Protein backbone atom coordinates (compact mmCIF):
# COMPACT_ATOMS: atom_id res chain seq x y z
CA UNK A 1 0.00 0.00 0.00
CA UNK A 2 2.91 2.37 0.71
CA UNK A 3 4.21 1.87 -2.81
CA UNK A 4 0.74 2.63 -4.21
CA UNK A 5 0.49 5.90 -2.32
CA UNK A 6 4.01 6.77 -3.48
CA UNK A 7 2.89 6.26 -7.07
CA UNK A 8 -0.12 8.49 -6.55
CA UNK A 9 2.12 11.14 -5.00
CA UNK A 10 4.42 10.96 -8.02
CA UNK A 11 1.48 11.45 -10.36
CA UNK A 12 0.17 14.40 -8.39
CA UNK A 13 3.61 15.98 -8.03
CA UNK A 14 3.85 16.08 -11.83
CA UNK A 15 0.29 17.24 -12.23
CA UNK A 16 -0.44 20.93 -12.70
CA UNK A 17 -3.36 21.76 -10.45
CA UNK A 18 -4.21 24.80 -12.49
CA UNK A 19 -5.17 22.71 -15.52
CA UNK A 20 -8.80 21.62 -15.49
CA UNK A 21 -10.30 18.82 -17.51
CA UNK A 22 -12.75 20.03 -20.11
CA UNK A 23 -16.33 18.94 -19.36
CA UNK A 24 -17.50 16.13 -21.56
CA UNK A 25 -20.93 15.50 -20.17
CA UNK A 26 -22.46 18.96 -19.89
CA UNK A 27 -23.78 20.76 -22.94
CA UNK A 28 -21.20 23.22 -24.24
CA UNK A 29 -23.51 25.47 -26.16
CA UNK A 30 -25.61 26.68 -23.24
CA UNK A 31 -24.37 28.62 -20.27
CA UNK A 32 -25.85 27.53 -16.91
CA UNK A 33 -28.24 29.87 -15.22
CA UNK A 34 -26.67 31.23 -12.04
CA UNK A 35 -29.19 31.93 -9.31
CA UNK A 36 -27.59 33.63 -6.33
CA UNK A 37 -30.10 32.37 -3.82
CA UNK A 38 -28.63 29.34 -2.06
CA UNK A 39 -25.00 28.71 -1.18
CA UNK A 40 -24.25 25.30 -2.65
CA UNK A 41 -21.23 23.08 -2.95
CA UNK A 42 -22.93 21.01 -5.59
CA UNK A 43 -22.66 22.74 -8.96
CA UNK A 44 -20.56 25.63 -7.75
CA UNK A 45 -18.03 26.68 -10.33
CA UNK A 46 -19.29 24.50 -13.17
CA UNK A 47 -15.92 22.84 -13.14
CA UNK A 48 -15.19 19.85 -15.27
CA UNK A 49 -16.04 16.74 -13.35
CA UNK A 50 -16.98 13.18 -13.88
CA UNK A 51 -20.63 12.19 -14.00
CA UNK A 52 -20.03 9.63 -11.27
CA UNK A 53 -19.27 12.41 -8.75
CA UNK A 54 -22.68 14.04 -9.10
CA UNK A 55 -24.28 10.59 -9.22
CA UNK A 56 -22.59 9.60 -5.96
CA UNK A 57 -23.68 12.83 -4.28
CA UNK A 58 -27.20 12.34 -5.59
CA UNK A 59 -27.19 8.75 -4.33
CA UNK A 60 -26.53 9.95 -0.78
CA UNK A 61 -29.20 12.66 -0.99
CA UNK A 62 -31.74 10.29 -2.59
CA UNK A 63 -32.25 8.50 0.71
CA UNK A 64 -32.66 11.72 2.67
CA UNK A 65 -35.31 13.02 0.25
CA UNK A 66 -37.59 10.03 0.78
CA UNK A 67 -35.76 6.80 0.09
CA UNK A 68 -35.41 6.22 3.82
CA UNK A 69 -39.15 6.67 4.34
CA UNK A 70 -39.90 4.11 1.65
CA UNK A 71 -37.67 1.61 3.48
CA UNK A 72 -39.39 2.36 6.81
CA UNK A 73 -42.83 1.93 5.25
CA UNK A 74 -41.90 -1.37 3.64
CA UNK A 75 -40.66 -2.56 7.03
CA UNK A 76 -44.00 -1.62 8.61
CA UNK A 77 -45.89 -3.43 5.87
CA UNK A 78 -43.70 -6.52 6.20
CA UNK A 79 -44.22 -6.65 9.96
CA UNK A 80 -47.79 -7.81 9.35
CA UNK A 81 -46.60 -10.79 7.31
CA UNK A 82 -44.21 -13.70 7.81
CA UNK A 83 -41.64 -15.59 5.83
CA UNK A 84 -38.33 -14.74 4.14
CA UNK A 85 -39.70 -11.58 2.48
CA UNK A 86 -40.72 -10.19 5.85
CA UNK A 87 -37.32 -10.99 7.32
CA UNK A 88 -35.52 -9.24 4.47
CA UNK A 89 -37.82 -6.21 4.64
CA UNK A 90 -37.30 -5.93 8.39
CA UNK A 91 -33.51 -6.09 7.92
CA UNK A 92 -33.61 -3.41 5.21
CA UNK A 93 -35.79 -1.19 7.35
CA UNK A 94 -33.37 -1.58 10.25
CA UNK A 95 -30.52 -0.47 8.00
CA UNK A 96 -32.31 2.88 7.74
CA UNK A 97 -32.04 3.57 11.44
CA UNK A 98 -28.93 4.74 13.26
CA UNK A 99 -27.26 2.37 15.66
CA UNK A 100 -27.90 3.24 19.28
CA UNK A 101 -24.22 4.00 19.82
CA UNK A 102 -21.54 1.60 18.61
CA UNK A 103 -21.71 -0.11 15.23
CA UNK A 104 -22.39 0.69 11.60
CA UNK A 105 -25.50 0.56 9.45
CA UNK A 106 -26.30 1.95 6.03
CA UNK A 107 -28.02 5.00 7.55
CA UNK A 108 -24.78 5.85 9.36
CA UNK A 109 -23.06 5.89 5.96
CA UNK A 110 -25.16 8.56 4.21
CA UNK A 111 -23.75 11.68 5.89
CA UNK A 112 -20.03 10.76 5.67
CA UNK A 113 -20.62 9.76 2.04
CA UNK A 114 -21.85 13.27 1.31
CA UNK A 115 -18.84 14.83 3.04
CA UNK A 116 -16.61 12.47 1.05
CA UNK A 117 -18.14 13.61 -2.26
CA UNK A 118 -17.65 17.21 -1.14
CA UNK A 119 -13.94 16.46 -0.89
CA UNK A 120 -13.88 14.88 -4.35
CA UNK A 121 -15.59 17.93 -5.86
CA UNK A 122 -13.12 20.30 -4.14
CA UNK A 123 -10.32 19.04 -6.38
CA UNK A 124 -12.23 19.78 -9.59
CA UNK A 125 -13.98 23.02 -8.64
CA UNK A 126 -11.03 24.74 -6.96
CA UNK A 127 -8.57 23.75 -9.69
CA UNK A 128 -10.83 25.44 -12.22
CA UNK A 129 -11.32 28.45 -9.99
CA UNK A 130 -7.58 28.92 -9.44
CA UNK A 131 -7.00 28.76 -13.17
CA UNK A 132 -9.67 31.33 -13.92
CA UNK A 133 -9.39 33.78 -11.03
CA UNK A 134 -6.21 32.98 -9.12
CA UNK A 135 -5.44 31.45 -5.74
CA UNK A 136 -6.28 34.59 -3.73
CA UNK A 137 -9.79 34.75 -5.17
CA UNK A 138 -10.17 31.03 -4.55
CA UNK A 139 -9.46 31.60 -0.85
CA UNK A 140 -12.05 34.38 -0.73
CA UNK A 141 -14.64 32.24 -2.48
CA UNK A 142 -14.01 29.32 -0.12
CA UNK A 143 -14.41 31.56 2.94
CA UNK A 144 -17.59 33.11 1.57
CA UNK A 145 -19.19 29.82 0.66
CA UNK A 146 -18.33 28.29 4.01
CA UNK A 147 -19.78 31.22 5.91
CA UNK A 148 -22.99 31.29 3.89
CA UNK A 149 -23.47 27.54 4.19
CA UNK A 150 -22.86 27.76 7.94
CA UNK A 151 -25.50 30.50 8.25
CA UNK A 152 -27.85 28.48 6.07
CA UNK A 153 -27.39 25.59 8.49
CA UNK A 154 -28.44 27.76 11.41
CA UNK A 155 -31.54 28.81 9.45
CA UNK A 156 -32.20 25.14 8.60
CA UNK A 157 -32.49 24.30 12.30
CA UNK A 158 -34.86 27.15 13.03
CA UNK A 159 -32.64 30.21 12.84
CA UNK A 160 -33.60 32.77 15.46
CA UNK A 161 -37.20 31.59 15.69
CA UNK A 162 -36.30 30.44 19.21
CA UNK A 163 -34.81 32.50 22.00
CA UNK A 164 -31.22 31.97 23.09
CA UNK A 165 -29.97 29.43 24.17
CA UNK A 166 -32.43 27.35 22.10
CA UNK A 167 -30.60 28.08 18.83
CA UNK A 168 -28.54 25.23 17.41
CA UNK A 169 -25.15 26.47 16.23
CA UNK A 170 -23.79 23.17 14.92
CA UNK A 171 -25.57 20.71 12.67
CA UNK A 172 -25.32 18.82 9.39
CA UNK A 173 -24.92 21.82 7.09
CA UNK A 174 -22.58 23.53 9.54
CA UNK A 175 -20.38 20.43 9.61
CA UNK A 176 -20.32 20.32 5.82
CA UNK A 177 -19.34 24.01 5.82
CA UNK A 178 -16.47 23.44 8.26
CA UNK A 179 -15.20 20.34 6.46
CA UNK A 180 -15.36 22.15 3.13
CA UNK A 181 -13.55 25.17 4.59
CA UNK A 182 -10.60 23.36 6.14
CA UNK A 183 -10.23 20.70 3.42
CA UNK A 184 -10.29 23.44 0.76
CA UNK A 185 -7.69 25.55 2.54
CA UNK A 186 -5.43 22.53 2.88
CA UNK A 187 -5.92 21.59 -0.77
CA UNK A 188 -5.03 25.12 -1.88
CA UNK A 189 -1.89 25.35 0.26
CA UNK A 190 -0.49 21.83 0.69
CA UNK A 191 0.95 19.24 -1.63
CA UNK A 192 0.03 15.59 -1.35
CA UNK A 193 2.62 14.88 1.34
CA UNK A 194 1.20 17.70 3.46
CA UNK A 195 -2.37 16.51 2.90
CA UNK A 196 -1.41 13.00 3.98
CA UNK A 197 0.33 14.37 7.08
CA UNK A 198 -2.77 16.39 7.96
CA UNK A 199 -4.99 13.34 7.47
CA UNK A 200 -2.86 11.17 9.75
CA UNK A 201 -2.58 13.95 12.34
CA UNK A 202 -6.35 14.41 12.45
CA UNK A 203 -7.09 10.71 12.91
CA UNK A 204 -4.35 9.86 15.39
CA UNK A 205 -4.59 13.21 17.17
CA UNK A 206 -8.29 12.66 17.78
CA UNK A 207 -7.67 9.09 18.90
CA UNK A 208 -4.97 10.26 21.32
CA UNK A 209 -7.19 12.93 22.84
CA UNK A 210 -10.15 10.59 23.21
CA UNK A 211 -7.96 7.84 24.66
CA UNK A 212 -5.47 9.61 26.92
CA UNK A 213 -7.04 12.92 27.99
CA UNK A 214 -8.91 12.30 31.26
CA UNK A 215 -12.53 13.45 31.52
CA UNK A 216 -13.39 15.03 34.89
CA UNK A 217 -15.26 12.54 37.02
CA UNK A 218 -14.84 9.77 34.43
CA UNK A 219 -11.16 9.33 33.63
CA UNK A 220 -9.35 8.62 30.38
CA UNK A 221 -10.14 6.13 27.64
CA UNK A 222 -13.93 6.10 27.94
CA UNK A 223 -15.94 6.02 24.70
CA UNK A 224 -19.33 5.48 26.35
CA UNK A 225 -22.34 7.60 25.46
CA UNK A 226 -22.30 10.82 27.48
CA UNK A 227 -19.09 9.78 29.22
CA UNK A 228 -16.32 10.65 26.78
CA UNK A 229 -14.16 13.66 26.00
CA UNK A 230 -16.11 14.79 22.91
CA UNK A 231 -19.42 14.81 24.80
CA UNK A 232 -17.84 16.53 27.80
CA UNK A 233 -16.44 19.33 25.62
CA UNK A 234 -19.87 19.88 24.04
CA UNK A 235 -21.49 19.99 27.47
CA UNK A 236 -19.07 22.58 28.77
CA UNK A 237 -18.01 24.60 25.75
CA UNK A 238 -20.62 24.29 22.97
CA UNK A 239 -23.11 27.16 23.36
CA UNK A 240 -26.72 27.01 22.24
CA UNK A 241 -28.97 24.01 21.85
CA UNK A 242 -27.41 20.56 21.63
CA UNK A 243 -29.14 17.93 19.54
CA UNK A 244 -29.06 15.38 22.36
CA UNK A 245 -29.53 17.79 25.22
CA UNK A 246 -26.03 17.81 26.68
CA UNK A 247 -23.96 16.96 23.60
CA UNK A 248 -24.23 17.08 19.82
CA UNK A 249 -23.40 14.43 17.18
CA UNK A 250 -22.04 17.32 15.08
CA UNK A 251 -20.19 18.75 18.05
CA UNK A 252 -16.91 20.60 18.45
CA UNK A 253 -14.21 17.96 18.87
CA UNK A 254 -15.73 15.40 16.49
CA UNK A 255 -15.49 17.94 13.67
CA UNK A 256 -11.75 17.20 13.47
CA UNK A 257 -12.07 13.60 12.21
CA UNK A 258 -14.95 14.69 9.95
CA UNK A 259 -12.44 16.91 8.13
CA UNK A 260 -10.37 13.77 7.60
CA UNK A 261 -13.42 12.21 5.91
CA UNK A 262 -13.44 15.13 3.50
CA UNK A 263 -9.72 14.68 2.87
CA UNK A 264 -10.32 11.07 1.81
CA UNK A 265 -12.55 12.55 -0.89
CA UNK A 266 -9.76 14.96 -1.84
CA UNK A 267 -7.36 12.03 -2.29
CA UNK A 268 -9.92 10.29 -4.50
CA UNK A 269 -10.42 13.49 -6.50
CA UNK A 270 -6.68 13.87 -7.07
CA UNK A 271 -6.55 10.34 -8.44
CA UNK A 272 -9.54 10.87 -10.73
CA UNK A 273 -8.21 14.19 -12.02
CA UNK A 274 -4.79 12.80 -12.91
CA UNK A 275 -4.67 12.01 -16.62
CA UNK A 276 -1.82 9.49 -16.39
CA UNK A 277 -3.47 6.32 -15.05
CA UNK A 278 -6.15 4.77 -17.25
CA UNK A 279 -9.80 5.10 -16.19
CA UNK A 280 -9.91 1.34 -15.57
CA UNK A 281 -6.89 1.56 -13.30
CA UNK A 282 -8.47 4.43 -11.37
CA UNK A 283 -11.52 2.29 -10.64
CA UNK A 284 -9.30 -0.53 -9.42
CA UNK A 285 -7.29 1.85 -7.22
CA UNK A 286 -10.49 3.17 -5.64
CA UNK A 287 -11.86 -0.31 -5.02
CA UNK A 288 -8.60 -1.64 -3.64
CA UNK A 289 -7.96 1.34 -1.39
CA UNK A 290 -11.55 1.14 -0.17
CA UNK A 291 -11.24 -2.50 0.83
CA UNK A 292 -7.98 -1.90 2.68
CA UNK A 293 -9.32 1.20 4.43
CA UNK A 294 -12.54 -0.53 5.51
CA UNK A 295 -10.68 -3.51 6.95
CA UNK A 296 -8.27 -1.16 8.74
CA UNK A 297 -11.22 0.71 10.21
CA UNK A 298 -12.88 -2.40 11.59
CA UNK A 299 -9.53 -3.58 12.98
CA UNK A 300 -8.98 -0.23 14.69
CA UNK A 301 -12.54 -0.48 15.96
CA UNK A 302 -11.48 -3.34 18.22
CA UNK A 303 -9.74 -0.71 20.36
CA UNK A 304 -11.38 2.57 19.24
CA UNK A 305 -15.00 1.56 18.52
CA UNK A 306 -16.81 2.50 15.31
CA UNK A 307 -19.18 5.23 16.56
CA UNK A 308 -20.82 7.76 14.24
CA UNK A 309 -22.16 9.96 17.05
CA UNK A 310 -18.62 11.00 18.01
CA UNK A 311 -17.13 10.30 14.54
CA UNK A 312 -14.35 8.05 15.82
CA UNK A 313 -11.24 7.58 13.71
CA UNK A 314 -12.22 3.96 13.04
CA UNK A 315 -15.60 5.24 11.81
CA UNK A 316 -13.77 7.59 9.42
CA UNK A 317 -11.88 4.67 7.90
CA UNK A 318 -14.91 2.37 7.65
CA UNK A 319 -17.16 5.02 6.08
CA UNK A 320 -14.33 6.32 3.90
CA UNK A 321 -13.51 2.83 2.69
CA UNK A 322 -17.10 2.13 1.69
CA UNK A 323 -17.23 5.56 -0.01
CA UNK A 324 -14.12 4.76 -2.05
CA UNK A 325 -15.55 1.41 -3.11
CA UNK A 326 -18.89 2.93 -4.11
CA UNK A 327 -17.14 5.68 -6.08
CA UNK A 328 -15.00 3.04 -7.78
CA UNK A 329 -18.09 1.07 -8.82
CA UNK A 330 -19.91 4.17 -10.08
CA UNK A 331 -16.82 5.43 -11.88
CA UNK A 332 -16.45 2.10 -13.66
CA UNK A 333 -20.13 1.82 -14.58
CA UNK A 334 -20.77 5.44 -15.53
CA UNK A 335 -17.49 6.96 -16.68
CA UNK A 336 -15.64 3.92 -18.03
CA UNK A 337 -18.39 1.71 -19.42
CA UNK A 338 -20.77 4.59 -20.20
CA UNK A 339 -23.77 3.06 -18.40
CA UNK A 340 -25.35 6.37 -17.38
CA UNK A 341 -29.08 5.97 -17.90
CA UNK A 342 -29.69 4.07 -14.66
CA UNK A 343 -28.05 6.88 -12.65
CA UNK A 344 -29.87 9.81 -14.30
CA UNK A 345 -32.02 10.58 -11.25
CA UNK A 346 -28.95 10.51 -9.00
CA UNK A 347 -27.13 12.95 -11.32
CA UNK A 348 -30.11 15.33 -11.35
CA UNK A 349 -30.29 15.31 -7.56
CA UNK A 350 -26.54 15.58 -7.16
CA UNK A 351 -26.35 18.72 -9.28
CA UNK A 352 -28.52 20.62 -6.77
CA UNK A 353 -28.18 18.48 -3.66
CA UNK A 354 -27.90 21.21 -1.00
CA UNK A 355 -30.80 23.13 -2.52
CA UNK A 356 -33.05 20.07 -2.47
CA UNK A 357 -31.94 19.24 1.07
CA UNK A 358 -32.87 22.72 2.25
CA UNK A 359 -36.21 22.71 0.39
CA UNK A 360 -37.06 19.36 1.93
CA UNK A 361 -36.69 20.93 5.36
CA UNK A 362 -38.56 24.14 4.56
CA UNK A 363 -41.38 22.71 2.45
CA UNK A 364 -41.09 18.94 2.85
CA UNK A 365 -41.66 16.83 -0.24
CA UNK A 366 -43.32 14.09 1.78
CA UNK A 367 -45.47 16.61 3.64
CA UNK A 368 -46.61 18.06 0.32
CA UNK A 369 -47.35 14.59 -1.03
CA UNK A 370 -49.48 13.87 2.04
CA UNK A 371 -51.84 16.60 0.84
CA UNK A 372 -52.52 14.41 -2.19
CA UNK A 373 -52.40 10.87 -0.77
CA UNK A 374 -52.97 11.40 2.95
CA UNK A 375 -56.11 11.22 5.06
CA UNK A 376 -58.75 8.83 3.74
CA UNK A 377 -56.62 8.02 0.70
CA UNK A 378 -53.78 6.84 2.92
CA UNK A 379 -56.16 4.86 5.11
CA UNK A 380 -57.56 3.19 1.99
CA UNK A 381 -54.07 2.03 1.05
CA UNK A 382 -53.51 0.76 4.60
CA UNK A 383 -56.73 -1.25 4.56
CA UNK A 384 -56.48 -2.50 0.97
CA UNK A 385 -52.81 -3.48 1.06
CA UNK A 386 -51.17 -3.49 4.49
CA UNK A 387 -50.56 -1.13 7.40
CA UNK A 388 -47.89 1.33 6.27
CA UNK A 389 -48.97 1.41 2.60
CA UNK A 390 -50.37 4.90 3.06
CA UNK A 391 -47.06 6.22 4.30
CA UNK A 392 -45.31 4.36 1.49
CA UNK A 393 -47.48 6.18 -1.06
CA UNK A 394 -46.68 9.55 0.55
CA UNK A 395 -42.93 8.95 0.67
CA UNK A 396 -42.84 7.55 -2.87
CA UNK A 397 -44.83 10.48 -4.28
CA UNK A 398 -42.73 12.98 -2.34
CA UNK A 399 -39.53 11.43 -3.69
CA UNK A 400 -40.97 11.50 -7.21
CA UNK A 401 -41.72 15.22 -6.82
CA UNK A 402 -38.17 15.87 -5.62
CA UNK A 403 -36.73 13.97 -8.59
CA UNK A 404 -39.00 15.84 -10.99
CA UNK A 405 -37.84 19.17 -9.57
CA UNK A 406 -34.20 18.07 -9.78
CA UNK A 407 -34.72 17.04 -13.40
CA UNK A 408 -36.36 20.39 -14.22
CA UNK A 409 -33.44 22.34 -12.77
CA UNK A 410 -30.84 20.11 -14.42
CA UNK A 411 -32.41 20.13 -17.89
CA UNK A 412 -32.58 23.93 -17.82
CA UNK A 413 -29.02 24.25 -16.55
CA UNK A 414 -30.16 25.92 -13.35
CA UNK A 415 -27.66 25.29 -10.58
CA UNK A 416 -28.45 27.39 -7.52
CA UNK A 417 -25.21 28.71 -6.08
CA UNK A 418 -23.41 31.76 -4.71
Figure out the total of helices: 16
The total number of structural domains is 1
Q: What are the low-pLDDT stretches, counting only 5+ consecutive residues below 50?
A: 1-48
Biggest pleated-sheet summary: 2 strands, parallel
Number of strands: 2
In whole angstroms, how far apart are the ends?
Answer: 40 Å
User: In what order do the strands lie side by side in the largest sheet?
Assistant: 1-2
Average pLDDT, all residues: 88
> How much is the radius of gyration in Å?
22 Å
Morphology: globular
H-E string: HEHHHHHHHHHHHHHHHE
Helical proportion? 55-70%
User: How much β-strand is present in the residues?
Assistant: under 5%
- Structural class from helices and strands? mainly alpha
In short:
The protein has 418 residues and is mostly helical. The chain has helices at 2-14, 51-79, 84-95, 106-133, 135-156, 172-189, 192-212, 229-237, 255-273, 279-300, 313-336, 344-351, 353-362, 365-373, 375-384, 389-411, and strands at residues 33-35, 414-416.
How would you describe this protein?
The protein is an all-alpha fold and 418 residues long. The protein has one domain (25-416). Helices cover 66% and strands 1% of the residues. It contains 16 helices and two strands. It has helices at residues 2-14, 51-79, 84-95, 106-133, 135-156, 172-189, 192-212, 229-237, 255-273, 279-300, 313-336, 344-351, 353-362, 365-373, 375-384, 389-411; strands at 33-35, 414-416. It has a two-stranded parallel sheet. α2 crosses α11 and α15 (375-384) crosses α16. The longest helix is centred in the first third of the chain and has 29 residues, at 51-79.
Amino acid sequence: MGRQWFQIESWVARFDRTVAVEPSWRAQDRRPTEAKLTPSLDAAEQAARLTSIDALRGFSMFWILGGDGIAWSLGTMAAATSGPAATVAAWVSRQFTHVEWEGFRFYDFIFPLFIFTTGVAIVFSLSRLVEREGKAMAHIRVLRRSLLLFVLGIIYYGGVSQSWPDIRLLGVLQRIALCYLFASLMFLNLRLRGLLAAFVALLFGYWAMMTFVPVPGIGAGSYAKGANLANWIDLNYLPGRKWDGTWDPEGLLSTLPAIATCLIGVFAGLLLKDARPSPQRKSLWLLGAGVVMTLAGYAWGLQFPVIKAIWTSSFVLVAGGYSLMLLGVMHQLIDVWGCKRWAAAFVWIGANAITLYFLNNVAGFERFATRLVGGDVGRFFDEALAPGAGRLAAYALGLAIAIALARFLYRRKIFLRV
